[in-house]
UniProtKB/TrEMBL annotation:
Residues 9-411 form the DNA-directed DNA polymerase family B multifunctional domain. Pfam families: DNA_pol_B. Belongs to the DNA polymerase type-B family. The keyword Zinc applies. It comes from the Eukaryota. It catalyses: DNA(n) + a 2'-deoxyribonucleoside 5'-triphosphate = DNA(n+1) + diphosphate. GO terms for molecular function: DNA binding; DNA-directed DNA polymerase activity; iron-sulfur cluster binding; metal ion binding; nucleotide binding. PROSITE patterns: DNA_POLYMERASE_B. This is DNA polymerase zeta catalytic subunit. It comes from Ancylostoma ceylanicum. It is an enzyme of class 2 (transferase).
Amino acid sequence: MEAPEQLQLIMEPLSKVYFDPVIVLDFQSLYPSMIIAYNYCFSTVFGKVFQLERMAREKDNSIQLGAMKYTVPKPELVDCISKKKLHCSPLSSAFVSQSQRKGILPTLLREVLGARIMVKASVKHARGKRLKRILEARQLALKLVANVTYGYTSANFSGRMPCVEVADAILGKGRETLERAITLVNEGNYGGAQVIYGDTDSMFVLVAGATKAEAFAIGRRIASDVTKDNPTPVVLKLEKVYMGCVLETKKRYAGWMFESEDDEEGVLDAKGIETIRRDTCPVVAKVLERSLKLIFTRNWRGLSVYLNTKLSRLRDLPYTDFVFSKEFRGEYAENAAVPQRKVALSIAADSPAHIPLRGERIPYIVTDGPPEATVISCVRSLPEFISDRNLQIHIIYYAHVHILPALRRVTDLLLLTIRWHAEVNSPCFTPGCLTSGSDPWCSFCVDLRSAFQYALSTISREERLRAISRIACAHCQKQPLCDMNRCQNHACSIKKMWNSLIRSRARSAVRKHRLYAHTSISDS
């Protein structure tokens, strides 16, 4: 069987932050639409044109088709050629038209997509949340079946019915359809619209100087014209409009999304960047998401204040914001400095029955160490970090290796420079005070009565949270008295809150304040 030759179209974007509207248009079920529109199927393919020509010259009726030899019915081939009932794919594979023979895959997909439309319509009239969830799941399952049909034809290693000629025809026609749509937009009269990015079945159209309402109107015109330019059932849909968009590179972008012109507030929509990636820690996602919102609204002063405040007070965030959760890939080299491997080995040493499985995500955290320490030597598992209160989070590592590089990938496109130097001392305990001094008070707040009252109120709030945590944990364990510190469910939100309360600086702040005159606060 020959190797596949066709690739989907993925344009190299012009890396930039766009403040003008960017219209995102998407072909509805592109590959199923190609199969139906052009009658692509195992039962309708004759083979590649050069093979048919060679067959005619050598007077041999068999050619290689997919994974097997195929005997071409010459009379039927001649009849289709004479009646012009053949269609050639972009890579010159010949298929018969629907008027000659309806393919099995197109017939199957028509029924699947028709059933999905029927199920989606019934969702609107369904009574009860349970029935609606069932119907919604069914229509998503039907959508999945339709979208993976192309995969059945191209799975030449593990599949049961691969056929390169059919797979390349589907992929090539989808690429050709997207290219024609891009040409139509760039050469058409759409208010100076320009395609700045295209990916498989979608394209991003920049409309410089347009308002949100004008962008939606232009997007609908483009969708209508492209749909008319293609056979049924190929449909181009207007998905959304970005009022502010950053294109980093292929498959890495984010935008301030509006799904209709009536939406008053946008929503951050991202793909491939740290705000949605599972291999980074929550603090990176949160800082980047908030920064993008400020960038898209051009609030440069707010961005500066936010980053300065957030980076200076990273130590005040809960430890759960610094937990990485990366996939364990099983076997590693003996000297591989991989955090997942180190944590997995420590788990296996404690209990061989709890060895992580391949594909399992392993949480870990990076702690402070000596100046010459390597990152791998500072990696700790969550139970190890929680049990040792002397371990502190490596704030400088998180800021300079993860947070700032993620921000700079965006700000470098704006010619903005982010410089931040970590303070040697911790910031003052008082909210909003960025003065660094002796931990945990600066020279001004250490005598301030309002600062002392804030610390006391923080302890009071934490005591209420401790009581709530104990009640919730006792209810979960079905025991009136339970030891919170012995609980090993580190994924539990109550356990996470309890561990964060244990590491709170509030009690230390009260004791080190100059207005503290007695020791009536317990250490429970």
